[in-house]
Amino acid sequence: MIDKPRMICxxxxxxxxxxxxxxxxxxxxxxxxxxxxxxxMIESLPARFDYGITRSDDFYxxxxxxxxMSNNWETDLFISLHANWYIDSKVRGLETYYxxxxxxxxxxxxxxxxxxxxxxxxxxxxxxVIDRGEKPGAYYVLKNTQAPAILVELGFVSNDWQAExxxxxxxxxxxxxxxxxxxxxxxxxxxx
Length: 192
Hints:
By secondary structure, this protein is of the alpha/beta class. 42% of the residues lie in helices and 23% in strands. It contains six helices and eight strands, in the order βββαβαββαβαβαα. A six-stranded mixed β-sheet has the order 4-1-5-8-6-7, sandwiched between helices. A two-stranded antiparallel sheet has the order 2-3. α3 (103-123) links the parallel β6 and β7. The protein starts with 5 loop residues before the first strand and ends with a helix. The model has no long low-confidence stretch (mean pLDDT 95).
């Protein structure tokens, strides 16, 4: 018997008129990073996975529309890609959110974060990568998707070093492959 491929909704946060976080020193926009990593995920799509993407260019989709797309596609996992911002530009690190009470969402957040931290650590020359952990979040896309959902903060746009790191094409490709390794680990764990 042939199992159907796992359906993953890839959601590059923000877009169009909604730039998300901005590093005004470097002219780097969160929406651009999110989309670049999402497109890199499509390029590195593993066998036995299928995907839907909520935006494939620089335009804005409402949160409601993003959730409806995922639900209509009968997604097995929803992944929203973001980049953080904080007033203190020294703050940096990676973190992942899941819907409180979602055991599967929590497992997916852990699996993806573990792979991202390992990958960024290697790319970074093993220099003090900050794992800000997996946290419950009340974001609209996490609460309203029917599938388990995670929101991945790939780094802080407000930190010049991380903004440049996330803007690098090779790093984007490596992070996309790390996300897929985490996704595969997650499905292996829940499938037993």
